[in-house]
Amino acid sequence: MLYNRIAIYGHRGWASSAIAQALLTSGAPAKLLYRPGSNANGLKGRFDEIKVDVQDQDALRAALEDVDILISLVGREDIRLQHAFIQAIPHTDVQLFVPSDLAFRCDEQGLRISVNKEKDGVERAAREAGVATCVILPGVFAESGLNTGLLGVDVVGNRIAFTGDSRNQVLNICTRPYVATAYATIFPTTPIRILHNRTIGLSEFRSTGTEIATALQKKHGVAPQIFQHSLAEVDSQIDECVRLGKPLGLGWYCRRRWGAGDCVDALGGDVWDGDREVEKRSLEDLIVRGKLGLYRELPREILELLDKTFY
């Protein structure tokens, strides 16, 4: 089997740690790049470790020797760092850049939110530099979308806040293990020319708000508390978050896309079909059977703001 040579940057985050681990044990020749002060502790597999300041172009180019695909998994605070990769790649043998996204395509309203705007800027810069990219879009992570209140779903508290027509509209959902498996299936062995300039959507399962409410009732034995927000209310919340720099703008925007019925279209038309042998979790598995994983710990301020969703 022919493997692509992979380099990974960003391995400490909630999603990136699982994705990096899956890639490092996929069998592909791999390098783990990390900033000074970090380390590869806790990761398994055979891989090269390279400590590099990505703002040092000479050092970065040297780190990217013998690499076919560079996969960035940086969190939102480091999105802008990826411009350094775009600057370096034309001077290396790297044939494909996978920028960090892990969400869905945004419309004009979504691009007002800073993290979305920065992600879009990275992709635009790559196109302008002639750097081939492949973007992975899983839609919503189950662990954050169903287990924190970010999308108006409170499994533990048996509450759900519908937005617009989210009762009847479909939400595209992926678990963290599923996304990690997708990365480790797509990038190690797929011919690179097939991946050039693609946006690949992932879909583990899809559920309407009504189906989620039904699952909550099965879990708790009583119907969930139900709240309702209009699209106009949510638009107002997004505007306020953008204008005042308040948190949760992205959460409100995700709810808006769900309530407007845009979630599936936001993945694009190229949805991964190589998952037939991959274990998929269902809504019943996650909510009724209690297999929903935990998301990263959120600050108390954010938890308090999320709780206000239901009042």
From TrEMBL:
Location of the NmrA-like domain: 5-221
Keywords: NADP, Oxidoreductase
GO MF annotation list: oxidoreductase activity
Domain of life the protein comes from: Eukaryota
Listed name of the protein: NmrA-like domain-containing protein
Organism of provenance: Penicillium daleae
